[in-house]
Every structure is written in structure tokens, then in C-alpha cells.
């Protein structure tokens, strides 16, 4: 079991000619695109410490009368096309922000790990980053919906071992300036904003739009880095199980142990890479016992090992406990003289 590559940006633009193209570098950008759209693709490609793995460019018709159909077709296309981060730099102008937010939530509910960078939307979702600030290149302002292309590329180009907090955006000369109090308020409200440190523009905090926490989702679900690691683990294990285990082994205790060993080996690799602190997988005895009871099998006199080895049909009940490493973000330094 190996760690998969992350960092695929789905960039949806509007232009005269409809098309789909995978972009790996600036040289792949279609020459027929408008100058504005070429710049948006370049913004998505910039990344952070590395460039995105690729940009899936989806060009919709720019005719207003086609808008409803174009969005429906785009959503249908990306339901069966893999990506990590979606940006639609015309979504607010098209009044489709809430629709795309709902679509992303529905995709994640169906166990897809896709996410989106959207402008000015209080989505309260770990799958949506809410950008509310403008960026500037000298006198040119890039409003939040345009900035989403840059942020999607920024996140996609952030290695799994670090966060995009305080990532410098040297390709811009200024941003919507906020006081320290305003920045704290925005971050607490799940808003992705930028700060001016006196010399350059930086991303303030690598957070998504989550504001509501509870028993199921704690504060860690607010961090883009943590959610990326969660999604990666889910994708990697699902893909390996589908490709190498489902339908290919008898459901014996020994074969379950083979799968558990593979998952724990994967966790060990993530520990070595500095992505998680610890991770262990084992048979979920409580779920296995419940299944046996549901099927009228007496479990009262069965030992724990007998429950582990019991025949549970085609089911494999596993559980894992993982501790994901966060990045250094909050430093307290008391200096005594």
C-alpha cells in the first residue's frame, strides 16, 4: 500500500470555445484562451513549495443563455473525473456559489474527497475554503472569485508535511488589509484571508470554512492540512482495497490479517514521512460481535479471539486510530531579562 499523489486542481473558466484539457505547465495553456483566462491558469499553476500535479482545465460557453446547462454539464463531468481542489473564478458573478457549495457537500457525503475554493460563502464545511479577500498587482484588483484560482493552486502545491499558513504570495503586491483584530475575527469565522507583513502578502491561516464543532468534528477539521491528510488516507486505502483485495481473497481470518498488515505498513510509511504521529488498524470486535448477534449467533460464550475468527460472510469489520501531525503555527516565547 503506497501513498498517492495529491494536488490536482479542477479549474472551470468561461471562454468562446468549449474544451477540456489537462495542463501540466504554462506551455500547455491553449493559445486561443483570452488573456484573462490565461492568467487565471497561470495563477493556478504557481502552487507553493511545489507546483500542482496538474490542472484539469474545463472551459464552459460564455453565452449567458447557456449558463444553466453549462453548470449542469460541468458538475456531471467532475462527478466522474478525479480532482482534489475545484475553483470556478466566475461562480459569484454567475450567482452559482451556493449551488457549487451544495454540490461539493453532496460529493463528500457520497465518500468522494473533493474540495473547492469558493468566494464569500459561509459553507461551514471541511470541503470548502471561503476566500473573502482581494489581491492586488500594482493598481489591478483581483476580487475573491478570481483569487480562488490562486488559492486552489497554492493549497495543491503545499506538501502534506506543512501548512499553507503564512505562505508568501510574491506574485502580488498588496491585499485587502486588515487589523490584527479583524484577521483574528475572520479566521474564527472560517474565512480565508491574507495579511500584509510590511513587505509582502501572505496567506493568513490555512483554514477551511468549518465553524461548527462538536463530538463528530473537532477543531482539527478546521485545518486544511489535517483534512488533506484525512482525505489522502481515505483515498489511498480505498484504492488499494478495491484494486487488490475486494473479490480477490477468501474472507478468512488470515486474509483479514494480511489486509491489516498492509494498512499498518502504510501508516508506518506516513509516520516516516512526518504526516502522522501514529496509526494502528485492527479488527473491530464490537462491530463483529454485533453482526454475529444480528445473525442469531450466540456470542456470550465466545472468546475475543473466537469472535475475531468467526465467519461474518463477505464483511470485514476494521477500525483504525490515527494521530495526524499539525504544522507549527502558534508560538509562545517569553523572554526574561
TrEMBL record:
InterPro entries: Phage_sheath_subtilisin, Tail_sheath_C
Lineage: Bacteria, Bacillati, Bacillota, Clostridia, Lachnospirales
The family this protein is said to belong to: Belongs to the myoviridae tail sheath protein family.
Signal peptide positions on this chain: none
Superkingdom of origin: Bacteria
Residues of the Tail sheath protein C-terminal domain: 216-337
Listed name of the protein: Phage tail protein
Limits of the Tail sheath protein subtilisin-like domain: 77-208
Gene3D superfamilies: 3.30.1370.220, 3.40.50.11790
Amino acid at each position: 500500500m503506497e501513498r498517492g499523489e495529491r494536488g490536482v486542481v479542477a479549474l472551470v473558466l468561461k471562454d468562446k470555445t468549449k474544451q477540456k484539457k489537462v495542463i501540466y505547465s504554462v506551455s500547455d495553456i491553449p493559445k486561443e484562451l483570452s488573456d484573462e483566462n490565461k492568467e487565471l491558469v497561470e495563477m493556478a499553476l504557481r502552487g507553493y513549495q511545489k507546483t500542482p500535479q496538474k490542472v484539469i482545465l474545463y472551459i464552459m460557453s460564455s453565452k449567458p443563455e447557456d449558463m444553466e446547462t453549462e453548470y449542469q454539464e460541468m458538475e456531471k463531468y467532475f462527478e466522474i473525473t478525479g480532482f482534489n481542489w475545484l475553483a470556478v473564478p466566475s461562480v459569484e458573478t454567475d450567482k452559482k456559489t451556493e449551488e457549487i457549495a451544495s454540490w461539493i457537500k453532496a460529493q463528500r457525503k457520497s465518500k468522494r474527497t473533493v474540495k473547492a475554493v469558493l468566494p464569500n460563502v459561509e459553507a461551514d464545511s471541511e470541503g470548502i475554503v471561503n476566500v473573502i479577500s482581494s489581491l492586488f498587482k500594482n493598481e489591478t484588483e483581483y476580487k475573491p472569485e478570481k483569487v480562488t484560482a490562486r488559492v486552489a493552486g497554492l493549497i495543491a502545491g503545499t506538501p502534506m508535511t506543512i501548512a499553507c499558513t503564512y505562505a508568501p504570495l510574491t506574485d502580488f503586491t498588496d491585499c485587502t488589509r486588515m487589523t490584527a483584530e479583524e484577521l483574528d475575527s475572520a479566521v474564527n469565522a472560517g474565512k480565508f484571508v491574507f495579511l500584509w507583513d510590511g513587505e509582502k502578502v501572505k496567506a493568513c491561516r490555512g483554514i477551511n470554512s468549518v465553524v461548527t464543532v462538536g463530538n463528530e468534528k473537532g477543531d482539527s477539521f478546521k485545518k486544511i492540512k489535517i483534512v488533506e491528510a484525512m482525505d489522502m488516507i481515505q483515498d489511498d486505502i480505498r484504492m488499494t482495497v478495491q484494486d487488490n483485495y475486494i473479490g480477490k481473497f477468501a474472507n478468512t481470518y488470515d486474509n483479514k490479517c494480511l489486509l491489516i498488515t498492509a494498512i499498518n505498513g502504510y501508516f508506518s510509511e506516513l509516520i516516516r514521512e512526518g504526516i502522522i504521529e501514529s496509526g494502528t488498524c485492527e479488527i473491530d470486535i464490537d462491530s463483529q460481535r454485533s453482526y454475529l448477534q444480528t445473525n442469531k449467533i450466540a456470542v456470550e460464550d465466545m472468546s475475543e479471539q473466537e469472535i475475531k475468527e468467526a465467519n461474518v460472510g463477505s464483511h470485514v469489520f476494521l477500525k483504525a486510530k490515527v494521530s495526524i501531525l499539525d504544522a507549527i503555527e502558534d508560538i509562545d516565547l517569553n523572554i526574561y531579562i
